[in-house]
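User: Can you predict the 3D structure for this chain?
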Amino acid sequence: MAFLDRILGKKEEKKDTAKKEKKPTAVKAEKNKEKQAKKTRTEKPKKPKIKAEKTAKVVKKEENIAYSVLIEPFVTEKSTGLGQFNKYVFKVDQKAGKRQIKEAVQDYYGVQVVAVHTIKIHPKKRIHGRTIGYKQGYKKAIVTLQSGDTIGTNEGV
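Assistant: Here is the predicted structure, written as structure tokens:
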């Protein structure tokens, strides 16, 4: 197999272990320092790990949510009559909760809300000729304001 080693370019290893030269320890120490210096240059410096304290989750508050929560004021005879009792009726988003509605009215109109009552109006069946369809359902909110606060929903009518 020696001829194959020569063809493939493998060199013969010296079997003389006794003849190996022993280098002085000072030279080895210098080489080790050089290797470590090369490693530190190529590697990124590691940051010390600091144990993070548990913090409460910060919920990002949406600003100007009124445009997505309040669809339109609901103007009927009954809703205008409720205006005497400082109650106003709005058509709101189906997924909006009472707290979201309260915040939206307070931010948009600049009034103090005391209570919010919500009603879901289900889709109603409508027949037009042979076709059967449904009116779209919606959610209605009755908002009670603090005494002295008013909303001008009937302005310009």
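The chain has a mean pLDDT of 79. Residues 25-42 form the longest helix (18 residues).
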